[in-house]
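Encode chain A's predicted structure.
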Amino acid sequence: MLETMMRWCLSFAFLVAMVMPVGAQSYFSIVDDDADNVEAVSSVKRVADRRGVKVSFAVIAERLRDKEKLISLLLDYQKQGHGICNHSFSHNIDFWSHPTEEKVEWEMERSEAVLDSLGFRHHDYFVYPFGTFPASTYQWLVPLASAHYRMALGCRGYGNDLNATNRYNIARLPLRKHDNMFVVKHIIDEAVEKNQWLVFLNHSGMARDYSEERLDEVIAYCQAKGMKNVTIYEADSLNILKGNDASVSVWTKGNEVFYLLYMHVGWVLFAAVICVAGGLYVWKLRRI
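Encoded structure for chain A:
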C-alpha cells in the first residue's frame, strides 16, 4: 500500500513538472576588455571573488607578448573557471575603424594561433575592437566571424533578447564610473523583466572609466535581482541564445547620442537648469 502511494505521488509530481511552465531566467556577464596589465585584471578578480562570480577577459594577443606574469595570471584564472575571449591580434584603431575582410581574417587567424600557443582554451568568442560597424561591414563580417568563432560581441547596446539576438551581433552595455547609476539600474531592471542576457563591457585598464567599487555595486545589484551569472563560454554551453538566424542590429550615431544623454541624464538636467536660470537672469537685466 505504501509503495503504491509513493509511486502515485512520484507520478503526480512528474506530471505537474511536465505541465507547469519553467520559470524564465535573466542572465548577466562581465567582459573585461584588453586585460592590459596585472594590476587591472587583479582588481576585477578581487571583485569577482568577493561576489562569487566568474568573468570573461577579452585579451589582445599582440599585447600579451613578453608579459609572462600577466599570461600566468590569466591562465590561473582560466583554471578557476573564468573565461577568455579573443579581442583581436592588434586592436589597431587605424585598421579597425575601416576594416577589410582580408585583414580581419588575418587578425582572427593570427590571434587564434597566439592564444593556442600560450595555453588558453575555449577562446573561440570574438570581441570586435571598437565594435560598432555599418550594415555593409556586417554583411561580410558576420559570416567571417561565424566561420572562426562560436559567438561575437560588440561594444554598445542594452539587454539581449534570448530569442531574437544574432550570435555574432551580441550587444554590450559599457560599465563606466561616471555613468548615472540610477539609469544603469533601470537597464538591469528591464533586462530582468524581459528575461534578457545583459553583457557588461568593463575596461579595467582605463582609469577614466573603471572603478572597482562601481563594478562591485553593479554585480551586487544584478545578484539581488535574481540574475544568473555566466561567462561567455557558459552562456554558449547553456545555449541561452535561441535566435541564431536573427537579423543584425546596427548601432547608429543617433543611438550613440541618445545613449550618452541617457547615461548622463543628471548632468543634462543640471545644464538645462543652468541655461534656463542664465536666460532668465539676462532677461531680467534687459528689463531694468
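The two ends are 100 Å apart (CA to CA).
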